[in-house]
Amino acid sequence: MTAFKLTEAVIRASVSETIFERGQQLWRSGAISQTSIQGSTLSGECEGTQSPFYQVRAELDEGGIRSAACTCPYDFGGHCKHIVALLLAYAESPERFAARQDTAKFLAGLSREQLLALLVKLLGERPEFGEWIEASIAQPTGSAPRQSSPAQRRKIDTEVHRHRVRSIMHSLDHMRTSEAYWHVGGLVDQLRGVEETAMEFLAAGDAEAALRILITLLEESHEGFDYIDDSDGELGGYFSELGESLAEVILSLDLDKEGREEILSDLEEPHRNLCDYGVDGLEIALAAARYGWKEMPGDEHAQSDDEDYEDEEYEFDQSVAQVLTRARLNVLERQGRVDDYLALCLQTGAHLRYALKLCALDRVPEAVSYAKKHLSQADEALKLAEHLRESGHIDEAIMIGEFGLKLDGRKSALGQWLAPIEEAQGRTAEALAAWLAAFHDSPSLALWKTLKRLAGERWKKLRPEAISSLEKSWNSQELAEVLLFEEEWDVAIKVADEHKNNYHLVATVADAVISHNPEWVIRASLKQAEDLIVQTKSNLYPHAADWLRRAKAAYTKLGRTGEWQKYLQELKEEYRRRPALQAQLARL
Question: What is the pTM of this model?
Answer without folding.
Answer: 0.80
